[in-house]
Amino acid sequence: MSNKVISGFSSACVHEGHVQDPMYAHITPIYASSTFTYDTAEQGMHRFEGKEEGYIYTRWGNPNFTEAERKIAALEAFGLQDENGKDLVLKGILHASGMAALTTLFLGNLKAGDAILTHFSLYGGTEEMFQKILPNLGINSIIVDMHDLHATEETLKANPHVKMMYLETPANPTLQCVDLEELTFIAKKYNLVTAVDNTFATPYLQQPFAFGVDYVFHSTTKFLNGHGTAIGGIIIGKNLELMNGFMTKTHRLLGGNSNPFDAYLLTQGIKTLELRMERHCHNAMEVANFLEAHPAIERVNYLGLSSHPDFAIASKQMKHGGAMMSFELKGGLEAGTKFINRLQLCTRAVSLGTCDTLVSHPASMTHYGVPKATREQYGITDGLIRMSVGIESITDIINDLKQALQ
Ligand SMILES: *Cc1c(COP(=O)(O)O)cnc(C)c1O
User: Fold this and answer.
1) 283 lines ligand 1 (CB under 6 A)
2) 273-404, CATH topology level
């Protein structure tokens, strides 16, 4: 029996989702078991009918998945109310990867003939899924500049088959933001399902459910896990009937389930989310100020800088500017390559949201699959460098950048 009072975000990070282990282990053990047993045939039947709570088969669910799902759902709902003024309750479904979670999201909500309305500069994998996989199933996507609310609405008027509005804010790697409040308002007028990729912000910096969206998606691989130890993804929804019904069915049948070890690592990682994000954001602000003032730097895209075109939108819907930035050196690609090769402390790797600072080159790495002309239209020039600022001591990060820029 527990009467835990959880009023702060960090308390939620630490305690939400946890249930007392039957063996009294302090930390939920790794339930490495493909199936679960019944005392009687009747008990098995009741679990299948949903009359009795309990696990059946790990593709369907597992205690380690449940803990991570409840924790993340609680963080996305933290401090929010539903339409009736009650504490918002959300349901999360954990997956093997972000891309697996997106597969469930799209196939569970769309059918042949439907279309998705989205914007420029999405995560490379999402973009490729929209271009290379979904069209084969009769699901097309329409790209519009969502900074232009009028154009967005005109596009919806002209395309009544649009069923979903898919947003990624901040988006990769230019840190473009779109206005969640305005766009959700428009989406509701046209009866669209709205989904937001909240991977870069995390629920600590931004809560899209505050604006009435239907789904939030995360690649948990990034800041939620926080340590780069496991791939994972989650969709979180507010329509509980749908989430417990058809979305759960879709997840189980597509088979993109997580595994107990990765879910366990995710759960441990989330416990320090607020601490890490505060440090990540503080460091990122320092790094951005340093780079912006450096004579070798052409421009810096960081949401904490008033020079970013979406500074106002970010300030409205995010707590801080986040840990992600991108920048270009004055010497373009050649200078950029030299800089990356000279780094000693910062790690050369794609991905993001780990404790160490990661540096990558979008044009040749994360956005290699996106045609050059399209890339440049999104601001992903050949010389652009992306950085996920870590939680190291800030002096060491700055000193490494300094020596690499010399
Ligand atoms: C990494 C990432 C994804 C894809 O997630 P995986 O866990 O790699 O499958 C989607 N969106 C964003 C913004 C990401 O950073």
Assistant:
1) no
2) Aspartate Aminotransferase, domain 1 (3.90.1150)
The answer regarding whether domain 9-30+61-270 maps to CATH 3.40.640.10 reads: yes
Instruction: Give me the residues paired with residue 358 across strands.
Output: 347, 388
- Residue 156, token pair as written in the block: 């919806």
Atom of ligand 1 nearest to the CA of 199: 13
Read off φ and ψ for residue 281, nearest 5 degrees. Answer: -70, -40
Euclidean distance between CA atoms 390 and 282, whole angstroms = 10
Lowest mean pLDDT among 42-46, 88-92, 146-150, 363-367: 363-367
The pLDDT mean for the chain works out to: 96
Residue of the CA atom closest to atom 11 of ligand 1: 123
Could you tell which of 106, 123, 169, 262 is best to mutate to test the pocket of ligand 1, judged by most ligand atoms within 8 Å of the CB? 123
Give mean pLDDT, residues 135-156. 98
pTM above 0.85, yes or no: yes
Out of 76-80, 281-285, 309-313, 364-368, least confident range: 364-368
The 3-state secondary structure of 234-272 reads EEEECCHHHHHHHHHHHHHHHCCCCCHHHHHHHHHHHCC
Asked if residue 125 has its Cβ within 6 Å of ligand 1, the reply is yes
Q: 219 alpha carbon to ligand 1 midpoint, in Å?
A: 5
The domain limits of the chain are 9-30+61-270, 273-404
Query: For the segment 65-93, what is each residue's pLDDT rounded down to a tens digit?
Result: 999 999 999 999 999 999 899 999 999 99
Total residue count of the chain as it appears in this document: 406
